[in-house]
From TrEMBL:
Family statement drawn from the similarity comment of this UniProt entry: Belongs to the TRAM family.
Record's subcellular location: Membrane
Domain TLC intervals: 112-294
SMART domains: TLC
UniProt protein name: Translocation associated membrane protein 2
Amino acid sequence: MAFRRRNKSYPFFSQEFLIQNHADIVFSLVIFILIGLMFEATAKTAILFIQPQYNVSTLSPEGEVTLYQYGWKDCATILFYFFITIILHAVVQEYVLDKVNRRLHLSKSKNNKFNESGQLCVFHLVSSVWSLYILITEGYLLHPSSLWENYPHVHLRFQVKFFYLTQLAYWLHALPELYFQKVRKEEIPRQLQYICLYLLHISAAYLLNLSRVGLVLLFLQYVSELGFHIARLFYFTDESHQKMFDLWAVSFVFTRMVTLTLMFLAVGFGLARAENQGLDWETGNFNTVLIRPVTTMREENCKYLTSVHDDLFLWYCYYSRKYYNHNPHQIFGQNF
């Protein structure tokens, strides 16, 4: 695999060299780990990075099933897929978004936001389809009570654990991408906000054994965000394309209502009536009077802040110009 050659060459290990060639460097690290699988002396170490750990075999009506728990070795797996997401980010950027940008001739500020929405659009699409597939195959949609029954959900199926590990890897990779993509200083606080909030939400759901509820909430969140970023991309290609924001506004309100209802149903009703109340680190039980309301507020704050960040507020205000007859660029300047 080789990325396109750049016209300029920079000194080795200089800042520009690392930025221009970071995907190739990371790809070399991935190959190095994969080569470790070929040798018996290093295979056990290399497998820690590639395959989820802490598997336990149990008997079920379907036969022997392999389930997974979490532990510190997950950090190695997250690191490997952290590298993978950096490579995929570079592929989407160079072979899709950069080609579109050359045709659109956008300004620098719009170009940065176009790249941001393009990357997030791909990620939200994949994550939405993936999470929906898990919800269907695991039966969470047909049996909503399974979201809180038999808590704590310490044992996870492979696809559930792998989903959470890759989600953490993606949002962790978004932090160095702020440097690699040369994001403007005024844009960094806004992007840092929703990146950190996603990491907080996903980590808490994973570590507090609320993986089932977290999976549903992530699906709702990603569907809403997907609609926004698709509408945003259409707007950047042609400012007359505004109908997509009407569809996104409907999905935004719907997903917020479902999220709020689900949180109070699962946490406020389901877990509150569960028999196993109390904090137990050994069994992974965090169903306490103190943690439940904190979890509810954390989930809602994360969902609200990651969705209604600065750009979404600007788009809402942009729509209001039809009634107030204001130009959004005059109101918000370079932030729009």
